[in-house]
């Protein structure tokens, strides 16, 4: 057998047995992008402030609304618009047989398309605990105790029409993507404690920093003027003057704290 063929076969065999580190790392990074790291802890049980779970209302289109949505060339996922369509299609007046015309429902944010989702585990510093062991003779332990109540707020990164509708669509997309407990408003109560402890060696000064993590979401919102077009017995949804606008948002991760330990 030609030596070139033998070398090629050996090369292929080695490549199959030992994947390139860069490729393996890239695959691992993609897989674990939204995994909670070990230095981030859930404090839902320990939090002295009872945060309410922020569940977005899921509006299911009625049968008539779904038929209307299916006639549109533009995707519609705004739950408030779907709710209006449900109410509109149940009203027999504007959709009577033989009626011809256009019913204007207003200009709406129609859908949100996510382009990039990342997590800043140190979005906002909320606390620091200190322990001075400079004059000590043995190891002492430092624990997390929240010194004062902290309210962490998320927000859109730029101005946009119908901000409440846009925020709702963004957080729904981010929750589905990350599978994390997200909320635009979360609070860490005064006196909240966690049993995690860190050793401070003699002649050292320990600082335990605590941060609130948050998701950074970036994407585009599609806007359009929404009409119900009526031609005899045929009813369709017409979207005019469609535009897109880039938007971003910071959304805190509820009841989670990221810790960073420093020794001086």
Structural summary, described in words:
With 264 residues, the chain is α+β, with helices and mostly antiparallel strands. Strands 1, 2, 5, 8, 9 and 10 form a 6-stranded antiparallel sheet that branches. It is elongated, with a radius of gyration of 27 Å. It has 5 helices and 10 strands. The chain has 2 domains: 1-32, no CATH class; 40-263, no CATH class. Mean pLDDT is 86; it is low at 5-16 and 18-30. The chain starts with a helix and ends with a strand. A hairpin with a 2-residue loop joins strand 8 (204-231) and strand 9. The longest helix has 16 residues, at 163-178. InterPro entries: YfkD. Pfam families: YfkD.
Summarize the structure.
The chain is α+β, with helices and mostly antiparallel strands and 264 residues long. Helix content is 23%, strand content 44%. It has 5 helices and 10 strands; from the N terminus they run ααβααββββαβββββ.
Radius of gyration over alpha carbons?
27 Å
H/E element sequence: HHEHHEEEEHEEEEE
β-strand percent reads 35-45%
User: N-to-C terminal Cα separation, in Å?
Assistant: 65 Å
- Overall morphology: elongated
Spans of 5+ residues with little confidence (pLDDT < 50)? 5-16, 18-30
Main sheet: strands, sense, barrel = 6 strands, antiparallel
Mean pLDDT: 86
Structural class: alpha+beta
Count of extended strands: 10
Protein name: YfkD-like protein
InterPro entries: YfkD
Pfam family, one: YfkD
Organism: Ornithinibacillus bavariensis
């Amino acid at each position: 057998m030609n030596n070139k063929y033998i070398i090629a076969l050996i090369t292929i065999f080695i490549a199959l047995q030992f994947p390139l580190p860069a490729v393996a790392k890239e695959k691992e990074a993609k897989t674990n992008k939204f995994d909670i790291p070990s230095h981030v802890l859930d404090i839902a049980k320990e939090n002295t402030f009872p945060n309410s779970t922020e569940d977005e209302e899921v509006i299911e289109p009625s049968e008539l609304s779904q038929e209307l949505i299916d006639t549109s060339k533009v995707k519609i996922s705004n739950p408030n618009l779907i709710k209006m369509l449900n109410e509109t299609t149940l009203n027999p007046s504007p959709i009577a047989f033989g009626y011809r015309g256009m019913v204007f429902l207003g200009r709406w944010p129609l859908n949100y398309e996510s382009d990039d989702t990342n997590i800043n585990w140190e979005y906002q510093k909320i606390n620091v605990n200190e322990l001075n062991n400079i004059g000590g003779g043995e190891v002492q332990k430092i624990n997390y105790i929240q010194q004062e109540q902290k309210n962490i707020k998320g927000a859109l990164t730029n101005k946009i029409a119908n901000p409440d509708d846009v925020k709702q669509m963004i957080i729904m997309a981010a929750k589905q993507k990350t599978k994390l407990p997200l909320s635009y408003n979360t609070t860490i109560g005064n006196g909240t404690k966690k049993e995690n402890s860190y050793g401070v060696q003699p002649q050292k000064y320990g600082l335990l920093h605590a941060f609130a993590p948050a998701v950074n979401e970036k994407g585009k919102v599609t806007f359009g003027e929404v009409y119900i077009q009526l031609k005899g017995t045929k009813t369709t949804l017409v979207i005019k003057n469609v535009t897109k606008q880039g938007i971003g948002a910071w959304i805190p991760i509820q009841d989670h704290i990221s810790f960073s330990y420093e020794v001086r």
